[in-house]
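ping. complex inputs:
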Amino acid sequence: MTGPLDGGGPDEGREEVGGVPRIPSPRRAADNYEALPAPEGAPPPLPHKVLQSLLGAWALSACSPEETTAVEEHLTECAPCAEEALRLRDAVGLLHHERDLDLDPLLRSRVLENCLGRRPARIPVPDWAGPYDAETARLDALLRDIGDSEWHAPVRLKWFEGDRSVSRRTTVAGVIGHLQAVDGLVATAIGLDDSLSSKTPTERTEDHWRGAHHPPTRAVRGPWRDQAHTLIRTVSFAGRGVAELSVSYGDFSLPLRDALVDRAFECWVHADDIANAVDYPYEPPSGAHLHGMIDLAARLLPAALAQRRRAGLAAPARHLVTAGAPGRSLHLEVEGSGGGDWYIALDSPAAVGSRDRKVAQVALDGVEFCQLVAGHIAPEEAAAGQDGDREAIRDVLFAAASLSRL
Amino acid sequence: MAKDTPPRWDRKMQQRLARGEAAALGELYDRFASLVHNTAHRVLDDESAADQVTREVFGYVWENPDAYDPRREGSMRSWIAKLTRRQAVHRLRQAEAKAYAERGGGSPEELEQKVRRAAVSARADFIVQSMPAPLRAALELAYFQRRDYRQTAADLGVTEDEARRRLRLGLQLLATANSRPVDGRAL
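pong. complex structure:
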């Protein structure tokens, strides 16, 4: 191709370089020069202003070959443009792909610990709110990294009702709505505004889904995150006094300190559901936090067992003892990070679990136990090691699965 | 004349940090950890060194929330980005000086050049993240997607003239990364 500037010397006028005699065209506004009809064989030279406007595109190699040639010719004769071209080319070298490496989720607790070691908090986050703080932060980091379309990835929520596994289909965004709706129970209990009036986790979730935009999008992340931050902040200010405050789940209630461990547990379980749906790796909580979650489930087991018994789903009590006395117990041995030993009173929630009155033992991994409690694995498939009273073992494993809910 | 008054979030965050609210520290981390870590990693190109700088920067902000002056520093985001670059450059210079001393060879000029390159790329990252979204979108298409400016214009639904303007302006902003002195004072 023949550029319009061919053969032009730097001392010639900008509009008349090229040595081809022609009528100089008037300068046009930069955005309509292309509308000019090109004379055959000899396109008009691009005016300085247009060439200058092309410098960014030129530096990025985003011009047509003709324009590239025209710009480069121009640079040999126009010092200000040449200087700018050089600067912009250098700037292109500074563009680079964002690093995809995710932040190490454990870094958060190390950084915060280091800070608090340097300057203790005057208003600390209560220990019992720590797991909720950590798990919501981990889930949020996962959500930050997923793309718009992944918010619509299907997720199947699973839990146990009676002796059978049930499930419900939703999306990643729907799961966040569910978490927000149920976290709202805690918000209500500590006097924060809450838009839903319904009482149980299931009703609240249904109401939230009904009231939400369809289909829910990544816009659900902000309100969920803000609510979690507000919860943590509020319990920090309230301090010790509110730890025992009762949080109603409709048909049962938990003290606030346990309710936040429960919400941390749900947050992890559903974060794991989401991670599976979008094919991301997701680790279990830290050992200390996992321990707290297992401990809460172990403490809830005697009452869950009694409830199943009343419903005729568990064997009758064998040896009732006076309240507070040691009763027949199952030794729950949880292995791995966060593990430990728990003695579950079998005949009554009022009895105390006792090593001396152990009639059975179950050994399983911490994460596996949590999956059982979440209703993600069947009681029949849980427990690597079992020893002793088979009925007691069966009843406790089914009671563990019955702790799960939507 | 004061610069833009900082957004409410920045002011409230500063007050909460000053008050010693641990929950505020968590929120600060949630908002800025990836900025801090990515910046430190861009300068130091080392995961554990970036972790270390992340610890140092948040430690500094937590201990010195009053050091943030919105009139001088602009947004808390840009203040924290600047602190991070400073600390990371300081660490890089230390690490490089040590390596030069151990290996022998290498001139102070080479060291300075390396430090400068790293500081400039970190600043460039911040400029790209903070520039107006339309400029960033244009650069994204032209550079990463390899679209020419006409395709870029079509993709963005703007005139070709506007696409050229955005590409040029975006690069002009980015080029300012090269024009400031390197600040590597330790926190």
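Chain B touches chain A through 57 residues (CB under 8 Å).
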